[in-house]
Amino acid sequence: xxxxxxxxxxxxxxxxxxxxxAPLAAAGPPGWAALAITAGIQGAMIGLQLLFSRKGPEQxxxxxxxxNEAEVELQRNLDAYLGGPRTKDNQQAALAVFDxxxxxxxxxxxxxxxxxxxxRAVRERGPGGQVPxxxxxxxxxxxxxxANDPQAQASTTALTxxxxxxxxxxxLGLLAGIALLTLGAFL
Length: 187
Hints:
With 187 residues, this protein is an all-alpha fold.
């Protein structure tokens, strides 16, 4: 007696119905061996179907990639603010960049294609959340140091010292627009 394994089964699920296995069980020890092999093959088929029908691993990779790329830019924004003239104008521009990045991150992460991993990424990094293995979230790390900066001072010339040839400073809206366009190129 020979057995043939095919990719198609009578019920379309990738495995045989129990009734089809009854003759093997009734055939005695040779049938039992075939039954065990068939059960093992069917178990493997079920395992593979479950593995390849999952979206979780790919969703998690994509959500993590988006978060990692955005976090690099948030760190760059914080470093630029802390490393430059800490004026109220620059503070507002840096906060606008963070708020834009957060809104874009939420929009990307809540795409239904990212499923629960995308939702989880937002919960963990948002206000009150906690990134696993850490004691904080993006607001604590990247927004609060800017928003609560006690050294931020009023200025009459925003970023004049950083722009060669600028005499009256750049308007806050223009600075925020430049920052948003730069960040948008990376998201």
